[in-house]
Amino acid sequence: MSGAGTDSTKPWPESGPVVILVEPQLGENIGSAVRAMGNFGLSRLRIVNPREGWPNPKAVTFASGADRILDHAEIFPDLRAALADLNFVAAATARERGMQKSVLAADAVAAETAVRINGGEQVGLVFGRERTGLYTEEVSLADVILTLPVNPAFASLNLGMAVAVVAYEWFKLASGGALPFQQPDRYPIADKADLLAFFDHVERELDEALFFRSPEKKPVTIRNIRNIFHRVGLTRQDIATLHGMVAALVEGRRMREARTAARLEGRNEPRAGGETEG
């Protein structure tokens, strides 16, 4: 989705876990991760020993407007320093590390994070280098391992993608899954009087058009037609449109019949509105 849906008047979420990027190699990847954070309500960023130094102009470009996250980003010399004030940490990795640690998916980490933040704890989500990920000793500093159900034949995610998936699960839980908008109800649902009047209209015209070829089957066919429209949940505007459609079809049929009759009688064909060619 493009930035067209951004509303700068909305408040920016300030709670949530800290995202920690360990030795990110490219400013572009930092910016992509920051953009994902902004999309899904995370605002606190810590960067451990960025390879290209800091600040990084490319990170600003790829953050696509989430500058406030970059402006308040904290830089640390190593992961231990970045974790020092946190109470609970999840380390993202795609590889089994042979450790006796709980292995949680992103939704489970989001649930655990919410419980701990509500209890006053500080939570961190740690993501490793683009090429090698986190080292085993770095994973050992975390309380749980965070991993995703990815294709085992191609399990490596781009840094921004990995942050996006985890941040999405967090924000979905934190927001109660509320979508930013719904289709507005512009027209009220048709009442039964409107619906019955339409049934009368369409059934009368179907009769005129000889649609009901079998008198024995006519009641069943009418019930089936009515059930089709009952399932749709028609609005008053829908009913008005359907009336117009039926009326147009009827008028078209009558015009064709009139032209056919005129040709058979050798007369000029009538025009719309009842006029004839002179």
TrEMBL record:
Entry's localization field: Cytoplasm
UniProtKB keywords: Cytoplasm, Methyltransferase, S-adenosyl-L-methionine, Transferase, tRNA processing
A biological process from GO: tRNA nucleoside ribose methylation
The EC designation for this entry is 2.1.1.200
Quote the SUPFAM superfamilies the UniProt record gives. alpha/beta knot
Keyword tRNA processing on entry: yes
By its UniProt entry, which InterPro entries does this protein fall under?
A: Alpha/beta_knot_MTases, RNA_MeTrfase_TrmJ/LasT, SpoU_MeTrfase, tRNA_m1G_MTases_N
Any Pfam family from its record, for instance, is SpoU_methylase
Q: What PANTHER family is this protein classified in? A: TRNA/RRNA METHYLTRANSFERASE, TRNA_RRNA METHYLTRANSFERASE SPOU TYPE DOMAIN-CONTAINING PROTEIN
Protein name, entry field: tRNA (cytidine/uridine-2'-O-)-methyltransferase TrmJ
The gene name reads: trmJ
